[in-house]
Design brief:
Blueprint: E1 8-14, H1 18-27, H2 29-33, E2 37-42, E3 56-59, H3 65-74, E4 80-83, E5 89-90, H4 94-107, E6 111-119, E7 124-127, E8 149-151, H5 152-155, H6 168-177, E9 183-194, H7 203-217, H8 219-237
Length: about 240
């Protein structure tokens, strides 16, 4: 099997949500069949009986989402990696992933940004990386996180910081971009995400996120983020 997909690992983390995991697992069937590596990290009750023997499964207690992601990344042995959380779906055909991996290899890219849709039930909204630039971290804005493809060797020395249980993905990406990775934008919709996560569940989650930013960035910047983050996010969805 000569598929370039053999160079990519996709990490899925889960905790006691077998129905969502099966949906995500099924969306990656063709990816696994083409030689891609699917790593599943489960911190809850066993899901072994839900899967066939075509993925890597790690089942053990963890300290939450970001601890599970660190464990998953530590298992990667391929050139590239990306994340698809339980409940989210790969919507791009394998041919799109192949072209993106070929482009990363030919251009020696460390990071390829992409787009995703967010399912709010009655409607789906596009979350685009088109307008995002690294300086936007200063506004509290990050690119869509899960549809990023990373060069494993570049990110191997980075870990999600468990001291930031809500915004560790922002902190993780900000630290990565401080090392000036060679990056570009693939411009493809790779993933459909389910709304309702810790950072996208309405006013309460907005306030919780701002509290976490206060710990990370201090009072002044976190106060600025109250205004800048929603503005950038709205623009990303236009």
């Amino acid at each position: 099997m000569n598929s370039v997909l053999k160079t990519l690992s996709i990490i899925t983390i889960t905790y006691n949500n077998p129905a969502d995991l099966v949906s995500t697992y099924n969306s990656l069937k063709l990816f696994r069949k083409a030689g891609g590596t699917h790593i599943i990290v489960n911190g809850g009750k066993t899901v072994q009986e839900l899967l066939i023997d075509d993925c890597i499964l790690l089942e053990e207690p963890d300290k939450g989402i970001y601890d599970a992601l660190n464990k998953g990344i530590s298992l990667v042995q391929t050139v590239y990696l990306m994340l698809i959380h339980s409940g989210d779906f790969l919507v791009a055909p394998c041919s799109v992933l192949e072209r993106q991996l070929q482009a990363m290899n030919e251009r020696n890219l460390d990071i390829l940004l992409n787009n995703c849709t967010i399912d709010f039930g009655r409607q789906k909204r596009l979350m685009s990386s088109k307008i995002w630039r690294p300086w936007m971290f200063k506004l509290g804005a990050q690119p869509p996180h899960t549809p990023i493809i990373y060069r494993t060797a570049f990110v191997n020395n980075f870990k999600y910081d468990l001291r930031h249980p809500i915004i560790a993905d922002f902190d993780y990406l900000e630290r990565i971009f401080k090392e000036f990775p060679k990056y570009d934008k693939g411009g493809q919709i790779l993933i459909n995400m389910s709304a309702g996560g810790k950072t996208s569940s309405g006013l309460y989650s907005f306030l919780v996120v701002n509290r976490e930013f206060r710990k990370l960035k201090g009072n002044f910047l976190s106060s600025c983020f109250i205004f800048t983050r929603p503005i950038v996010k709205i623009i990303q969805m236009i």
